[in-house]
């Protein structure tokens, strides 16, 4: 996400770093570059101006000290980083639960922003945290929005209150109100009200949204906005803020190559924080929005924190502990362990997305590799290991020709695929041994203490040494 | 817009300050024309005499419009096939319905293919439109193969001697190469039965500069032939469409201006260009 902006920021800093001392002209230069980058990334004009003014002011204020530090460019970088975090809203904001349940969450936004999909994702997210959400179908406008919500609800196991068929039939205010009563009756602790999309200029429909809002008195009104939106982001957000009012923003479609305009403009202009971000088509592609992590990503520092959190969630305690003790006690890392890792990695979600969180993921070479990453390779590697007997997995040395032929047949792969997997695995084992004896080898990124060896997550973008088109295998090369 | 006429008036009177130029440039950026295009316009305008500036700007904008054919293609001896593509939430299904209404008004027979088998209830959404507009919809199983739905529809359109076949596809982000390949496959499979005449990319008027990449990638995958610019009834100016035309040469064919089936207009350059400044 935000690749183009990220690339420009990194370019601007690369040229600043090449300079030893920083003069005020250099600051003007980088400010101009950043200004162009922001404008080209759909950031609202007013926001860009504020950003640049603050950047210039803060940098010039410390310019004397800057040049005393060993790395003046980094000090400027820090200023930009903190400005970005501020502009993105400072710290992450969580849902405020009502003292007396149910907590009412109202979704509003333009048509096509992704409210209904978001309703499902939010419900799933809250359900996974032990809540008992109820979805209320108050979008009676768009043909079959109600059916869509019902299908979504069913797929995540969250009940949907939908007394009206929609398609223009029924009163959305009444549905919302009755839904709330229903939730109270059935002891749902959270209700999520999906409403019809409307344009910021349509005062009539904004009024209707306001009526729904007044009827259910939401604890959180969320404004859902497409991350790809351009300069209109601010106008429409303001219209909603004035016409309906909202407490926080949800960004959708962040998995595209959105430039970041909406993300960087809305908080600044409306004073409302971005609470969540949706990053994919799956119901689980959804998380809290962390301004500091987003700033890191934009500046090319990656998002190791999120990666570590996802890793922690995916590797169950047992697997991790087992691997750790194995590693410490000097036992061999086996294909069985490797399989457990592959499975855990798959649980963490799309590899491309995970790798995109690594520092430098948006830079040229790595980005290209990421784009070419074939998610299917993981499955293929997995199928090869799964076609092995437990004996073979624990002691790959027994793999003779006939065993390899059988495995190839069983997994629907070529013998050469089996061979190269085994070969790379043997090499990886060696590296592990070296690491144990402290002779170096691949290092885990910082901040991932409980993350067992997950070669594919760390190494596949290592271009110099890659020999295979299979990232999982390639990762094992060393 | 007031700002613009005011600025133009100032410019005409010959007293253009650098802050006036900056203001014009920002107004162009605010219309989503893109920073580079805006800067270029300013360069052009600065070169002419002050009383010619507004004509120079509008001529430059005119010049960026594609000279491609803006009319919907029609083939006389077989069903004309139109594929509707785009990223999520731009209004593909609604635009499909509007296009049906437009063709029905011209007494054309239409068949719909519900090839969005992915989004929950997308098929039902199209079916509802089909019922309202009295047009048959070819459907397949949910999460089924969109190419096979499109193929069935093409076969039926050909057998029944329908005038227009319109294929609604699932929204997909252009960055998902697997999904883009799926779209290429839909096109390839349909072309076994009928040539595809139009591939219309539905672009949301609120889209930012990312729209250019969208168009380029859809161009590579399915050779888009035109744009439908939706949600022009909002506060967005839709300047991104001009930026796309300039970059890809693909013409805007229709403009969507509301939620009703008849809210679709054939593109006209003048009101659109004027609208960029209003």
UniProtKB/TrEMBL annotation, chain A:
Taxonomic classification: unclassified sequences, metagenomes, ecological metagenomes
Residue numbers spanned by region Disordered: 432-478
Protein name, per record: signal-recognition-particle GTPase
Gene Ontology BP, a term: SRP-dependent cotranslational protein targeting to membrane
Single annotated GO MF: GTP binding
Keywords: GTP-binding, Hydrolase, Nucleotide-binding, Ribonucleoprotein, RNA-binding, Signal recognition particle
EC number: 3.6.5.4
Stretches assigned to the AAA+ ATPase domain: 101-305
Gene Ontology cellular component list: signal recognition particle, endoplasmic reticulum targeting
Domain named SRP54-type proteins GTP-binding: residues: 102-300
Domain Signal recognition particle SRP54 helical bundle: 1-88
Protein family: Belongs to the GTP-binding SRP family. SRP54 subfamily.
Entry-linked InterPro entries: AAA+_ATPase, P-loop_NTPase, Signal_recog_part_SRP54_M_sf, Signal_recog_particl_SRP54_hlx, Signal_recog_particle_SRP54_M, SRP, SRP54, SRP54_GTPase_dom
Pfam family, one: SRP54_N
UniProtKB/TrEMBL annotation, chain B:
A cellular-component GO term for this protein: cytoplasm
UniProt keywords, alphabetically: Cell membrane, Cytoplasm, GTP-binding, Hydrolase, Membrane, Nucleotide-binding, Receptor
One GO MF term attached to the UniProt entry: GTPase activity
PROSITE patterns listed in its UniProt record: SRP54
Subcellular location: Cell membrane
One example of a Gene Ontology biological process annotation: SRP-dependent cotranslational protein targeting to membrane
Domain SRP54-type proteins GTP-binding stretches: 251-264
Name under which the protein is recorded: Unannotated protein
Biological classification of the source: unclassified sequences, metagenomes, ecological metagenomes
């Amino acid at each position: 996400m935000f690749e183009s902006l990220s690339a420009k920021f990194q370019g601007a800093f690369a040229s600043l770093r090449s300079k030893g001392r920083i003069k005020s002209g250099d600051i003007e230069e980088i400010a101009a570059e950043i200004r162009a980058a922001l404008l080209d990334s759909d950031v609202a004009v007013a926001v860009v101006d504020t950003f640049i003014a603050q950047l210039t002011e803060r940098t010039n204020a410390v310019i004397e000290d800057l040049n005393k530090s060993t790395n003046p460019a980094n000090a400027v970088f820090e200023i930009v980083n903190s400005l970005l975090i501020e502009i993105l809203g400072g710290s992450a904001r969580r849902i405020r639960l009502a003292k007396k349940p149910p907590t009412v969450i109202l979704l509003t936004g333009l048509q096509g922003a992704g409210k209904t999909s978001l309703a499902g994702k939010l419900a799933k997210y809250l359900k996974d945290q032990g809540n008992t959400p109820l979805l209320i179908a108050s979008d009676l406008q768009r043909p079959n929005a109600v059916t869509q919500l019902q299908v979504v609800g069913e797929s995540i196991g969250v009940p949907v209150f939908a007394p009206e068929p929609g398609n223009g039939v029924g009163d959305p205010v009444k549905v919302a109100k009755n839904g709330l009563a229903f939730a109270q009756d059935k002891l749902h602790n959270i209700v999520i009200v999906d409403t019809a999309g409307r344009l910021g200029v349509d005062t009539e429909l904004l009024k209707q949204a306001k009526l729904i809002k007044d009827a259910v008195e939401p604890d959180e009104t969320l404004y859902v906005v497409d991350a790809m939106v351009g300069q209109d982001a601010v106008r429409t957000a303001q219209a909603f803020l004035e016409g309906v009012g909202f407490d926080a923003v949800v960004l959708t479609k962040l998995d595209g190559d959105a430039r970041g305009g909406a993300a960087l403009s809305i908080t600044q202009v409306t004073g409302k924080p971005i609470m969540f971000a949706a990053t994919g088509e799956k119901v689980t592609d959804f998380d809290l929005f962390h301004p500091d992590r987003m700033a890191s990503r934009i500046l090319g520092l990656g998002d190791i924190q999120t990666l570590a959190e996802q890793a922690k969630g995916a590797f169950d305690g047992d697997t991790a502990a087992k691997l750790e003790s194995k590693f410490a006690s000097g036992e061999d890392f086996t294909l069985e362990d490797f399989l457990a890792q592959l499975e855990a990695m798959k649980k963490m979600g799309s590899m491309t997305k995970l790798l995109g969180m690594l520092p430098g993921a948006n830079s040229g070479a790595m980005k290209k590799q990421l784009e070419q990453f074939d998610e299917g390779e993981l499955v293929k590697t997995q199928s090869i290991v799964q076609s092995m007997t437990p004996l073979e997995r624990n002691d790959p040395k027994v793999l003779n020709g006939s065993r390899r032929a059988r495995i190839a047949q069983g997994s629907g792969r070529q013998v050469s695929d089996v061979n190269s997997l085994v070969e790379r695995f043997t090499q990886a084992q060696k590296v592990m041994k070296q690491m144990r004896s402290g002779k170096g080898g691949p290092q885990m990124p910082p901040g991932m203490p409980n993350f067992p060896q997950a070669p594919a997550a760390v190494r596949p973008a290592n271009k110099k040494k890659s020999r295979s088109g299979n990232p999982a295998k390639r990762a094992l090369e060393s | 817009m007031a700002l613009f006429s005011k600025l133009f008036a100032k410019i005409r009177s010959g007293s253009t300050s650098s802050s006036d130029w900056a203001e014009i440039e920002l107004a162009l950026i605010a219309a989503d024309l893109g920073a580079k295009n805006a800067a270029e316009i300013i360069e052009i305008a600065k070169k002419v005499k002050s009383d010619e500036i507004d004509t120079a700007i509008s001529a430059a904008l005119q010049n960026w419009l594609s000279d491609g054919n803006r009319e919907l293609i029609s083939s006389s001896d077989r069903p004309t096939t139109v594929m509707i593509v785009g990223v999520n939430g731009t209004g593909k299904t609604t635009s499909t319905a509007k296009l049906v209404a437009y063709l029905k008004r011209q007494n054309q027979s239409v068949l719909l293919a519900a090839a969005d088998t992915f989004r929950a209830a997308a098929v039902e959404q199209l079916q509802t439109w089909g019922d309202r507009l009295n047009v048959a919809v070819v459907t397949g199983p949910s999460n089924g193969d969109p190419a096979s739905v499109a193929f069935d529809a093409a076969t039926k359109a050909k057998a029944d001697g329908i005038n227009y076949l319109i294929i609604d596809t699932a929204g997909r982000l252009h960055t998902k190469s697997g999904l883009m390949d799926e779209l290429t496959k839909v096109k390839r499979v349909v072309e076994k039965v009928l040539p595809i005449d139009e591939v219309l990319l539905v672009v949301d008027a609120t889209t930012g500069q990312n729209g250019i990449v969208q168009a380029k990638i859809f161009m590579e995958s399915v050779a888009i032939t035109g744009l439908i610019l939706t949600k022009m009834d909002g506060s967005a100016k839709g300047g991104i469409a001009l930026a796309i035309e300039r970059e890809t040469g693909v013409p805007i064919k229709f403009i969507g201006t509301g939620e009703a089936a008849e809210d679709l207009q054939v593109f006209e350059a003048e009101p659109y260009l004027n609208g960029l400044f209003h």
